[in-house]
Amino acid sequence: MKKMFKLNRWLLAALLVASAGSLQSCLDDDNGYPYDLLIPKAVVTVKPTAADAFYMQLDDETTLKPVNVTASPFGEKEVRALVNYDVVDDPASPYDQAVYINWIDSLLTKPMAPNLGEAENNAKYGDDAVDILADWVTIVEDGYLTLRFGCYGNPASTTAHFVNLVSTNNPDDPYEVEFRHNAYDDIGSQPKVGLVAFRLADLPDTEGQTVKLTLKWKSYGGDKSATFDYCTRQTTVPGGEAIAAERNTLKMK
Question: Which residues contact 111 (CB under 8 A, 6 or more apart)?
Fold first, then answer.
């Protein structure tokens, strides 16, 4: 049986700053890393079970059974994760597909934070600019809002940025939320990228109905917003061209 693919951290760092086209030849020929094993194939929810095992929720209709990993690499925590896998012919029951995990990498996965009021929100959660990046990992599915975002910081800084999602407490729209970013004065010209997933369990149950979830944030060009189709613990995909995901170059908490 083949072994689980091991990723070189320096190679991952290179992926963050170079395009897929420019790395294709180098990765396949010089370093011995098949390119299709380096890029994530999906973002999933890793769900531990009572039997000291786990499965992965790909979407509302598809569950994945790993055949080469027994216990979750993330313990008893339910987390969102990027994964590269191959579908195999092994028995999958009671799940939908059996898969061989080549690698899996968890995302920072957080609950929503309480709205403390504007002044305290600014003090605790910050009011620093950020750009939400529209690609296939910026998505609402399986009860989570998963976001890829970019900001600028000092390249030498090791400061952990603080990111949160709060309800705006809009009396006319209970599904309006705001992304908050506290850079702790890590300001600079170096582009940095982050991936984070927020559990939306604090929002009212949609009771099977699809509603509009409005995300607001402070961007470098001013206040912005985007809407997603949202149904409690079901999958929705926002518009936008799917592109390869990037791992974090930003330290977060």
Answer: 198, 199, 201, 202
